[in-house]
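Open question from group meeting: does this chain pack into something compact, or does most of it stay loose? Before anyone orders reagents, we agreed to write out a predicted structure and look at it together. Recording both the input and the output here so the notebook holds the full record.
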Amino acid sequence: MERALVPRVCRALGLCRWPCGVRHRSTREQPPPPAGRGEEGPPASLPRGPGAGPGSGGSRDTPRGHPRPGHRGAGRGSATGRELWLSQLDELPRARKGMERKPLRLERTKGSEILFGIGPCSLALSQARRDLFRLFLKQSSSRRPVMSEFVLQAAARGVPVLHVQRRELDELCRGQVHQGVCLEATPLRFKSLEAAETPGLGDDASGKRQLIWLVLEQIQDPMNLGALLRSAYFLGVDRVVTSHRNSCPLTPTVSKASAGAMEVFDVYSTDDLQSFLKAKIAEGWEVVGTASKPEDVEDVPVISCLEFRWDKPLIVVIGSEGEGLSLETQLLCHRVLAIPPGRALHPGIDSLNVSVATGILLHSICSQKRRHGD
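Structure tokens returned:
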């Protein structure tokens, strides 16, 4: 764009000697004028055209709007003309940059975080589990029905709505996929495990209802944690418990990866996972673990998930992304479930992502509840 504007600027200011675009030559590079040629007029041997009097712009051979080759006025060859020409070139990019609006610097409320994405923000507004401060919507998308719904939700909760440019949203969520909406709110925390043991939540082990809890040991990737919560919520898991040590907290990235399930699904935490499992075993719960490589499991029976029968309150324990279950946790399991592959696997691609494997296992187990009509 700058290169296309240069000839027009030059012609408008009368700075260009030749109609050749950008590549101009200074007067020092021009051949000397022919003998008998004056500084102000054409050579004596060339006839003047009609109206070609002094100051008319030269002969018919001189391009209209350009100074004559021998003219010493505002040409680029003169010091004043050269400086003016260069200053005009410098002003072009500066003028364009000045027209661009700088991103708005938004001060965050102390102790807040930025949720992003349609699912997390909508559910956070509707569930009232967080303190909400401000809702940010993309300016150009305000006519979309979903954005109108956001405005109504925010008005019902008394949350201020700010319409900002996409750059502001990008800065708020640090370049994550925000879908045109961000929400400033207080963080969600893990619930205490004691709350999960209150009557009505954990005392249904009498057999009236099949219970299944998902226990996560040292899941560190927020995308994996979000996907695990989404699958657990969808498939009907009653509770999710995570180890407090070396585990991912409940961040906006987790909420986005869970498609907002984190906003409606309680997540509990414990500082002593082994003691928790021992207590549940004493209450009559069955504990099953998982293993990507069944041949590495020792002292615990390994069966296919297709052979498992769910007939009592159940805890499914999932290990970390790289190491799997710790040995202490694995030895507390009654059995270890394995997913049979559908083909001979090459080394290096002989396992599944932890969230994918968990989804398969939970579906295999929870589908038994639906078959039994519970």
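Observations to bring back to the group:
The domain at 209-342+351-367 is CATH 3.40.1280.10 (Alpha/beta knot).
The mean pLDDT is 79.
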